[in-house]
């Protein structure tokens, strides 16, 4: 189906046929959900051995009784696990609770209220702003919006953020104090940053506000679907450019073990960690070290973690293939949308024709298929072109996902034809 070359009579015939199909689907009273990238029950079961793994032995290798208070930085063995995931020295890692999002919020709040490494608190600037590669992660944007930090869109390319746009914005505005990054299998595009992008990111602090920080949310560092995709080291690049203070790295086991009971990590320079720990001392007496010990024993060697992630990939790969094959079969020779083909992560990014995404999401919802709200992948929930939709294949069983995608495709076709018919 190619809409741009269709006659009005063809469009009207298509609309009638698609509407009839849509009404039949609505009668089935479906209740399907592909909104968020949650692990499926089958994935969660891969880590059920965590329950009881300590078998009454709560002592860490260094003698720490994990049942008690203390240990602001987390257990050494847990920090070593985080260092393996992020490929950084253990000395630069703090292991915390279950959520890297919590760590990111805490880090943004620290910068906003107190500043990092002796720099001016962001709240003292005239109009502090973050650069936000789009489409991007809605929860990053929510942090900035809640704290009143402005957000500036920069386009994503197939190698990472548009670095010309990033550099221009930073040179023009010293109130830009942050940049959100999901550097490997970006949410939602699935893009992995290349070496040129990483090198240019590492050089930003040479001309940015001294308090500028890159928030390097490496949520999918080990979430390859098949062959391992290598992400260039931002730490190595900053050391080469004497800008190590400009980056804060984050990761967690939320999509590795039990999503609600994992371990989160932050890695940063000693100056940044000192700033963060100063605030942490006022808000906690230490993390859940029992859970950290469980994870350290579950993944006694990094090879065990790699093998575990291969099991995740075996579950996820057929689901991604389902989404991508349906999109290709429906739109491979059409002009109704474009999409990415990720090699890992948790999402597929789909772009409708401009102005159609909101209509597609509503049609799908009315037919019983929940999608992430249109605009969610942009700051303030406003997609200027109303075209991006994030598809999350991981949670539903394959049969339900197959049905959900069939409904999604029908809704894209119907919304596109109706939009074209409404044109003068």
H/E element order? HEHHEHEHEEHEHEHEEHHHEEHEEH
In CATH, the topology of the largest domain is named Aspartate Aminotransferase, domain 2
Fraction of residues in β-strands: 5-15%
Count of DSSP helices?
13
C-alpha end-to-end distance: 21 Å
User: Domains counted in the coordinates: how many?
Assistant: 2
Protein name: DNA-binding transcriptional regulator, MocR family, contains an aminotransferase domain
GO molecular function, one term: L-aspartate:2-oxoglutarate aminotransferase activity
Keywords: Aminotransferase, DNA-binding, Transferase
Pfam family, one: Asp_aminotransf
Report what the structure shows:
The protein has helices at residues 8-26, 41-45, 76-86, 100-113, 138-147, 163-172, 195-202, 234-240, 270-283, 289-298, 302-331, 357-366, 398-422, and strands at 32-33, 93-95, 129-134, 150-157, 160-161, 176-181, 213-217, 247-252, 264-267, 337-339, 348-352, 369-370, 388-391. The protein has 424 residues and is an alpha/beta fold. The protein folds into two domains: 8-43 and 306-422, Aspartate Aminotransferase, domain 1, CATH 3.90.1150; 60-299, Aspartate Aminotransferase, domain 2, CATH 3.40.640. It has an eight-stranded mixed β-sheet with strand order 2-9-8-7-6-3-4-5, sandwiched between helices. Strand 6 (176-181), helix 7 and strand 7 (213-217) form a beta-alpha-beta unit. It starts with 7 loop residues before the first helix and ends with a helix. The relative contact order is 0.18.
């Amino acid at each position: 189906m190619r809409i741009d070359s269709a006659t009005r009579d063809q469009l009207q015939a298509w609309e009638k046929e698609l509407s009839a199909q849509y009404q039949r689907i609505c009668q089935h009273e479906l209740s399907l959900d592909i909104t968020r990238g949650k692990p499926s029950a089958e994935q969660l079961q891969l880590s059920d051995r965590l329950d009881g793994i300590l078998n009454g032995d709560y002592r860490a290798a260094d003698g720490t009784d994990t049942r008690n208070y203390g240990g602001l930085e987390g257990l050494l063995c847990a920090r070593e696990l985080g260092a393996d995931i992020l490929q950084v020295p253990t000395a630069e890692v703090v292991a915390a609770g279950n959520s890297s999002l919590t760590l990111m919020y805490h880090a943004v709040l620290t910068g906003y209220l107190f500043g990092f490494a002796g720099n001016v608190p962001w709240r003292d600037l005239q109009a502090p702003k973050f650069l936000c590669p789009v489409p991007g992660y809605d929860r990053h944007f929510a942090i900035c919006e809640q704290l009143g930090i402005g957000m500036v869109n920069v386009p994503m390319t197939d190698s990472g953020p548009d670095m010309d746009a990033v550099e221009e914005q930073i040179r023009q505005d010293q109130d830009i104090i942050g940049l959100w990054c999901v550097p490997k299998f970006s949410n939602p595009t699935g893009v992995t940053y290349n070496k040129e992008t990483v090198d240019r990111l590492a050089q930003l602090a040479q001309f940015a506000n001294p308090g500028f920080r890159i928030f390097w949310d490496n949520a999918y560092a080990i979430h390859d679907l098949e062959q391992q995709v290598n992400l260039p080291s931002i730490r190595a690049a900053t050391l080469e450019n004497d800008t190590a203070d400009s980056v804060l790295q984050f990761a967690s086991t939320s999509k590795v073990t039990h999503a609600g009971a994992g371990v989160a990590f932050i890695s940063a320079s000693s100056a940044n960690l000192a700033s963060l720990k100063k605030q942490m001392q006022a808000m906690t007496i230490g993390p859940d070290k029992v859970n950290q010990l469980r994870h350290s024993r579950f993944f006694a060697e990094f090879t065990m973690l790699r093998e575990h992630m291969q099991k995740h990939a075996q579950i996820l790969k057929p689901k991604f293939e389902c989404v991508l094959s349906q999109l290709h079969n429906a739109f491979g020779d059409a002009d109704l949308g474009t999409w990415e083909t990720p090699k890992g992560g948790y999402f597929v990014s789909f772009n409708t024709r401009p102005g159609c995404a909101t209509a597609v999401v509503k049609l799908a919802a009315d037919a019983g298929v929940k999608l992430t709200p249109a605009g969610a992948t942009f700051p303030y929930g406003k997609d200027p072109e109303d075209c991006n939709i994030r598809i999350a294949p991981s949670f539903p069983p394959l049969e339900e996902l197959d049905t959900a995608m069939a409904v999604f495709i029908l809704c894209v076709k119907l919304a596109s034809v109706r939009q074209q018919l409404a044109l003068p």
